[in-house]
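Q&A log
Question type: sequence-to-structure
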Amino acid sequence: MQTELSITALIFEASLVVQLVMLLLLAFSVVGWMMIFQRSKVLKNTAAQALSFEDRFWSGVDLARLFQEVTARAQHASGMEKLFHAGFKEFARLRNNSALSQQQVLEASYRAMRVVHSREMDRLESNLSTLATIGSISPYVGLFGTVWGIMNAFIGLGAVQQATLAMVAPGIAEALIATAMGLFAAIPAVIAYNRFSHSVEKIDNQYLNFMDELLAILQRQWAQSKAGNAA
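Response status: OK
Response body:
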């Protein structure tokens, strides 16, 4: 009897619809865990690279030299390095243009950084919507399998004259397995989505703060260069 009611036996003896639901939930779970590991690695590396570059940026290094260093490894630059590269490149290109005011040059630098910022945020938020979808629909998919399994169990129960618990128990048990699998797929996806969303928000704020700080430094450099020219 224990063999008949084992989880493995219940899964293989379940109705076709319930088996398809379980297979779908298994696919959701596998995809969800793959995305969890991949996003975790990406966000961890991005946060570490941002901190490392900020330490280098605030170490007192000359910005022109730092720009050359970032340019040399442009293909492998981190998100914050790309922000700096875009902003400083635009500033260096336009600051000697006498037809442009300080405000116009700084706005152009900020726009260049905003474009890179938008691309970087799209990269960091990639697949988060899929995790959210898995977390939100998996319980309902599992519930559908549960309802279907219980419905079949009671239909079979109504077809016999003398009903016993042993007759309906396997059908109810296989139906509840679908619910459990739905929760197993949903819970990690929801936890990971909330955690990753918080991490992306922290990185986003870090990027925005860096852009404002860089813009303030570029503004001071503009003022110093104009003062030197006037002297």
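Response note: The radius of gyration is 29 Å.
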